[in-house]
Design goal:
The chain is of the alpha+beta class. The chain has helices spanning 4-17, 40-47, 155-162, 169-174, 184-194, 207-226; strands at residues 23-28, 34-36, 52-58, 61-66, 70-75, 80-85, 88-90, 93-95, 103-109, 114-119, 125-130, 146-147, 179-180, 267-271, 274-278. The chain folds into two domains: 4-141, N-terminal domain of MutM-like DNA repair proteins (Alpha-Beta Barrel); 146-292, Helicase, Ruva Protein, domain 3. It has a five-stranded mixed sheet, with helices on one face. The protein has a four-stranded antiparallel sheet with strand order 1-9-10-6. A two-stranded antiparallel ribbon has the order 7-8.
Length: 296
């Protein structure tokens, strides 16, 4: 699933390539991706002629602010990402056929560029909303906490958010209502860098450990944005290039490989139904038996 760095990569690319462009027409073979308005014909009617005046990120959601007091919300979910270029539709395919290309929405823009939405699993969601609708009242964007890279998320505020949580710290980091933008990849990476066992209860951590997590979170996410995200599956930038952070991964998907710090083999466990990767020597579990509950 695209996380903060991948979504920010899309936003950065789109700001350079499609800002101030106007939607001329739309094609789709998967109308259910558009969740609001209810019909694809209404979606097309309301979007045509709208100019993109600003593009931003709200957690893992991309927001296009449009000229006609509207906003287009895009949640990539598992495999969604934008491509920018030129295609021709022939015999049921968009050509050129790029690697990892699963185009299900196509937008024609007024500068002759085309904005494609690729989504292999078709779990993504698009909603066209009025500017006056509060993001906190729209289901896609409700209950989103402070952004992991927000200036408002100081170390003190971060510690205040996690210190009383009785769930495993990895689950807390991935809870979008607490801190927005972190998913499975970066949670494992952050905890490896901070030397914290992923199954430790957040409430059992000491303040200095919380600060280590905060520093690791900021450092890793900033570096990942600079390297245009991580590709371990379908994610590509708008030029269909994979993210450059993948070679920097220290824990995620490295089970059975040597830890870069101590040479111990990285282990894979399941926490809350998600694969989790850690070093059993650098990230030793706390002694409390409660820290081992609910791991499998």
């Amino acid at each position: 699933m695209p996380e903060l760095p991948e979504v920010q990569t899309m936003v950065n690319d789109l700001e350079k390539k499609v800002l101030q462009r106007t939607f001329l027409d739309i094609w789709t073979d998967a109308p259910k991706i558009v969740r609001y308005p209810e019909t694809i014909s209404e979606f097309k009617q309301l979007l045509k002629g709208e100019k993109i005046t600003r593009i931003s990120r709200y957690g893992k959601v991309i927001i296009f602010y449009l000229s006609g007091e509207k906003k287009l919300l895009v949640h990539p979910k598992m495999t969604g990402h934008f491509l920018v270029g030129h295609w021709q539709y022939r015999s049921g395919n968009w050509l050129p056929k790029l690697e990892k290309q699963y185009i299900h929405l196509m937008f024609w823009l007024d500068n002759e560029l085309m904005l494609a939405w690729s989504d292999q699993r078709k779990f993504s969601r698009l909603e066209l909303r009025s500017m006056g609708e509060d993001l906190e009242e729209i289901k896609m964007t409700e209950n989103i906490g402070l952004d992991a890279l927000s200036p408002e998320l100081t170390s003190a505020r971060f510690w205040g958010l996690i210190r009383k949580q009785r769930r495993q710290i990895k689950i807390v980091l991935m809870d979008q209502s607490i801190i927005a933008g972190i998913g499975n990849i970066y949670a494992s990476e952050i905890l490896w860098k901070a030397r914290i066992y992923p199954g430790a209860k957040a409430s059992s951590l000491k303040k200095n450990q919380g600060m280590d997590i905060y520093k690791a979170m900021r450092s890793i996410l900033v570096q990942a944005v600079r390297r245009k995200g991580t590709t371990v599956g379908e994610f590509r930038d708008t030029e269909n290039k994979p993210g450059q952070y993948s070679p920097m991964l220290k824990a995620y998907h490295r089970q059975g490989e040597h830890c870069f710090r101590c040479q111990t083999l990285i282990k894979r466990i399941i926490i809350n139904g998600r694969a989790t990767f850690y070093c059993p020597k650098c990230q030793k579990p706390l002694k409390s038996k409660n820290d081992f509950l609910s791991l499998w």
